[in-house]
Design goal:
- The complex is a heterodimer of chains A (485) and B (483).
- Chain A is α/β, with parallel strands linked by helices.
- Chain A has a domain of 251 residues: Amidase signature (AS) domain (Amidase signature (AS) enzymes, Alpha-Beta Complex).
- Helix content of chain A is 38%, strand content 12%.
- In chain A, helix 4 links the parallel strand 2 and strand 3.
- The longest helix of chain A is centred in the last third of the chain and has 24 residues.
- Chain A is globular, with a radius of gyration of 21 Å.
- Chain B has three domains: 283 residues, no CATH class; 118 residues, no CATH class; 59 residues, Arc Repressor Mutant, subunit A (Orthogonal Bundle), CATH 1.10.10.
- In chain B, the strands form four sheets. In chain B, strands 1, 2, 6, 7, 8, 11, 12, 13, 14 and 15 form a ten-stranded mixed beta sheet that branches. Chain B has a three-stranded antiparallel beta sheet with strand order 5-4-16, with no helix packed on it. A two-stranded antiparallel ribbon of chain B has the order 3-17.
- The radius of gyration of chain B is 29 Å and the shape is elongated.
- Classes of the chains: A alpha/beta (485), B alpha+beta (483).
- Chains A and B meet through helix 10 of A and loops of B.
Chain lengths: 485, 483
């Protein structure tokens, strides 16, 4: 059952082979038993009730949604009314959401069953899920390794078969990098295509909710459910999205794929081989390869670590010990409520980024840092505009290296460089997908990334659909590699 | 209050924060009401819940644009919102969403009367922003009421073009009047709909550079603002007279009404760095030219134009025109009845003298008498047509106050008392006698003294106990004098 795709679960449920209660109970039992540290809370009561209601609705002859009875796992920075939402932080350990995020409403309208909230880097700040205040999350392919981050929990859970699909959030690669590390699909839609309403903001101009899945049809299905205009998010794209579950042809004949050859230096050799193999497969499928250049991509990491902390320093200002976050019991004055609550509530990585963000926005420094970074961001966007004049999509590796061992990267800058290939898509608001594309000699998954111009989400997904028809990487499961749950 | 500061001159700029009277808040969809139970009108945005996002209220934008057009400002077709960071418990996000770099309205000007002199003041810009909540202090703790949090504000920032406390309050009153007539705000001072900050510095006349300024924050009365500004000017002048080479400390002050003194709250050295930067949750505010045009075309009459019209078209005195326009409720009342009234001047008189006095006696505004404006107009029309006399009208007015639903017509026809003396032959006899008894008045009248004629009319009215119809009296009187 745990290897079933979302599409298969819907089919079996609709064929009355299995009830929503049976599916849900099985997944909940498994989630509670062993989950690699990928989950922060299991929503048994809520899930069982919804499953029961769904069975009754179905038996009474009513029509059911596109995700009927499919167990879904949600990153713990997305609001579910009445459920705890920690953001991986002690500060919000006891915070109960008072409303549903738009994506939660969308999923439940289509009868998905949300079974758990997943582990994450604190406030989505990290690339290994190691800044979570609660627990370590392991890579299902090898538990000595990190699943990546910040959406490591949602990703590891799907890779390990705890659910066929899940949601994460991607600010600088937080969906795509773990997807590459865990050998599944991770998609960051065009900025504004999925509502951010109810997603705890990290860097508002870069944040985007995105799905994980083990096959492209599942990914297209959940993407279609959440990619909608939303009146509650002013940055939401107001035109309707294409029906990605129906438009994928699987043909990329004549598609022009841009290859930024200047970015391929210094790659892990197995990743370079996987990339070349990816390109060759695409050629065999009839695609045309075009050399392109993204000369400003090399600045994307420093620019990101100015802009994202700047926005974060204000987004996280609301966590102040006054209304809902934990208030320090040692505070004796208003200033101490702020200072002590925040220093006790936030972990080191978060404090570091708030300080960085506050600094780059301060009077006297804003021109040198924040404004200059905005200018470089514009240059990075320009690179893409030029590139997309000669190609339809761009392909390059999701990460320069495969998954690393827990605790092996201690230098923050080395950790930040993890995002060198993923950040620019957030800068330019582009749709970007990590596709399972091979394994290293040690058996660690490799992801190749396809990016498209804004609003070309379907084109990006279609490349994966085509690649999937020629390869079987997406069918590989961790257990088959000898790493058991 | 003198604006003569000897060798010194005062330089004053005002920032007026005005709460717009929209149905809902600026970025959330909760009611924008005053006076509800604490924390009754709150939502996810206005309490700063994680994941909540701001969505701009179009009604607020329209009201801001309407104000901008009314003061002749330039409406920016693309303006931006920025985050202004500071920590305070009444500020739920710990940043305010405001327009720091590219505000919605650039420039604008105000012309108003300052102690009889027409003066011109210029507005630097007007921007939109959200209001904060309110701290409520109890003996052993402090609470936060977020009802006001997210209320839409426009901040109207003047140029440093004001030179005296009187000018400051005249400018602020003129702004208030515009906000009221444009239906941008209810402008209720007690409820804090208008809050003013004044930036004040003084310098020697002829000096080019501005000296350091004091900012007095959060004043919500024009009178107290005048007192505060005057006190601050005097304090700066006396400082410079004693210390001609020194400068005052730039800082934020508050006015202590009892001591009649401004008190330093925060010197500039410890002022906040607000770290303004573009609000990433809101795209640029783009106003289509057609949107602006539509508002422009539906703009109501400006108070200044209204006064002009009252004086020149309706023939009211400047005193009455000011009186009406400065009280929007009264003015709206006037305008409604005036539509059907044959004599606007008489109608205005009846309104602001007779009915206002009757309302005043019971401590009410004329509007609270609940008399439909057209009834007052009808009363005046009855006098004009000679149907009733002025004396009868006064009595009918009393009855109208007691029975606001009854029309003057209905009251007049319900009682014989209100029947004018239309018996021409009886009236002729009375008038003949009066003409005979007052030869000197006749002679005066023939010498061109109008007053003599009025005296004779008065005599007739007295004799008939006010029941004679004045037009008829005048007619017969003229005829008899002519004989």
């Amino acid at each position: 059952m745990f290897t079933l795709s979302a599409t298969d679960i819907v089919k079996k449920f609709k064929a009355k082979e299995i009830s929503a209660v049976e599916i849900t109970a099985a997944f909940l039992d498994r989630a509670e038993k062993e989950n690699l540290g990928s989950l922060l809370s299991v929503l048994r009561t809520r899930a069982m009730k919804r499953a029961k209601d769904l069975d009754e609705k179905f038996l009474s002859g009513k029509s059911v949604g596109a995700l009927a009875a499919v167990p879904v796992i949600i990153k713990d920075n997305i609001m579910i009314d009445g459920e705890i939402c920690t953001c991986g932080s002690r500060f919000l350990e006891n915070y109960t959401a008072t409303y549903d995020a738009t994506v939660i409403k969308d999923l439940e309208n289509e009868d998905a069953i949300i079974i758990a909230k997943s582990n994450m880097d604190e406030f989505a700040m990290g690339s290994s899920t190691a800044t979570s205040a609660f627990k370590r999350c392991d890579n299902p392919w090898n538990t000595d390794y990190t699943p990546g981050g910040s959406s490591g929990g949602s990703c590891a859970a799907v890779a390990a078969g705890l659910a066929p699909i899940s949601l994460g959030s991607d600010t600088g690669g937080s969906v795509r990098q773990p997807a590459a590390f865990c050998g599944i699909y991770g998609f960051k839609p065009t900025y504004g295509r999925v509502s951010r309403y109810g997603l705890v903001a990290f860097a508002s101009s870069l944040d985007q909710i995105g799905p994980f899945a083990r096959n492209i049809d599942d990914l297209a299905l959940i993407n279609e459910v959440i990619a909608k205009p939303c009146q509650k998010d002013s940055t939401s794209i107001q035109t309707p999205a294409e029906k990605t579950s129906k438009t994928l042809s699987g043909s990329i004949k004549g598609l022009k794929i841009g290859s930024p050859t200047d970015m391929l230096e210094g790659l892990h050799p197995d990743i370079l081989s996987a990339y070349n193999a990816f390109i060759n497969t695409c050629k065999e499928l009839g695609a045309e390869i075009v050399n392109i250049s993204l000369p400003h991509n090399k600045y994307s990491v420093p620019v990101y670590y100015i802009l994202a902390p700047a926005e974060a320093s204000t987004n996280l200002a609301r966590f102040d010990g006054i209304r809902y976050t934990k208030r320090s019991s040692n505070a004796k004055s208003l200033a101490e409520v702020y200072e002590l609550s925040r220093s006790e509530g936030f972990g080191n990585e978060v404090v570091q980024r708030i300080l960085l963000g506050t600094y780059v926005l301060s009077a006297g420094f804003q021109d040198a840092y924040y404004r200059k970074a905005q200018k470089v961001r514009a240059k990075i966007c320009e690179d893409f505009e030029i590139a997309f004049k000669t190609c339809d999509v761009i392909a390059f590796p999701t990460t320069p290296f495969p998954a690393f061992k827990h605790g092996s990267i201690t230098d923050p800058v080395a950790m930040y460089k993890q995002d060198i290939f993923t950040i620019s898509a957030n800068m330019a608001g582009l749709p970007a997908l990590s596709i399972p594309s091979g394994f290293t000699k040690e058996g660690l998954p490799i992801g190749i990334q396809v990016q498209g111009a804004q609003m070309e989400d379907g084109k990006v997904l279609n490349v994966a659909k085509a690649f999937e028809s020629k390869t079987n990487y997406h069918t590989m499961r961790p257990s088959e590699k000898g790493v058991s749950l | 209050m003198s604006s003569n500061y000897g060798e010194f001159e005062a330089i004053i700029g005002l920032e007026i924060h005005c709460q717009l009277n929209t149905k809902t808040k600026l970025f959330g969809r909760e009611p924008n009401n005053f006076g509800a139970e604490p924390n009754a009108n709150i939502g996810f945005v206005d309490t700063g819940q994680p994941g909540a996002l701001p969505v701009i209220n179009e009604e607020a934008v329209k009201k801001a644009v309407r104000f901008g057009l009314a003061v002749g400002g330039k409406i920016r077709e693309i303006s931006y919102f920025d985050r202004k960071s500071y920590f305070y418990p009444d500020c739920p996000f710990n940043y305010q969403i405001t327009q720091f770099y590219k505000p919605i309205i650039d420039g604008g000007s105000i012309t108003c009367d300052v102690d009889g002199e027409q003066m011109h003041f210029t507005i630097e810009h007007t921007h939109m922003e959200n209001d904060s909540g309110k701290l409520v202090h109890f003996p052993d703790f402090t609470g936060v009421d977020f009802n006001r949090s997210g209320a839409p504000l426009i901040e109207i920032v003047s140029d440093p073009c004001i030179r005296s406390p009187r000018q400051a309050s005249a400018y602020a009153s003129a702004i208030r009047s515009i906000l009221l007539y444009m239906n941008c705000s209810d402008c209720n001072m007690q409820e804090g709909h208008l809050r003013m900050d004044a930036n004040i510095s003084v310098r020697l006349k002829g000096e080019k550079e501005l000296r350091p300024k004091a900012e007095i924050k959060n004043m919500n009365s024009f009178h107290n603002m005048e007192l505060a500004i005057e006190a601050e000017i005097q304090s700066q002048i006396s400082f410079y007279r004693k210390n001609p080479d020194k400068r005052i400390k730039t800082g934020t002050y508050r006015f202590d009404l009892e001591k009649q003194k401004t008190i330093l709250m925060r010197a500039k050295e410890t002022a906040n760095d607000y770290r303004y930067f573009p609000e990433p949750d809101l795209p640029p505010l783009v106003l289509e030219p057609s949107f602006i045009k539509e508002i422009k075309e539906s703009l109501p009459e400006l108070p200044v134009a209204k006064k002009e019209r009252f004086i020149h078209t309706l023939g009211l005195s400047k005193y009455f025109a000011d009186l009406l326009v400065d009280d929007k409720l009264l003015c709206d009342y006037f305008e409604e009845g005036q539509k059907i009234c044959k004599n606007p001047k008489a109608y205005c008189n009846w309104l602001v003298v007779e009915f206002a006095a009757r309302a005043n006696e019971i401590n009410k505004h004329i509007k609270e008498l609940q008399i439909p404006p057209k009834h007052v107009a009808e009363l005046v029309n009855l006098i004009e047509s000679g149907r009733i006399t002025g004396k009868m009208a006064k009595e009918i007015a009393d009855l109208m106050c007691k029975n606001p639903n009854l029309s003057p017509e209905a009251i007049a026809s319900s009682d014989e008392r209100f029947k004018p003396m239309n018996d021409t032959s009886a009236l002729e006899l009375i008038i003949e006698k009066i003409v005979t008894d007052n030869p000197e008045s006749i002679a005066d009248y023939k010498d061109g003294k109008d007053k003599a004629f009025q005296f004779l009319v008065g005599q007739v009215m007295q004799k008939t106990k006010g029941t004679a119809s004045p037009p008829l009296v005048r007619e017969i009187l003229l005829k008899k004098i002519g004989e």
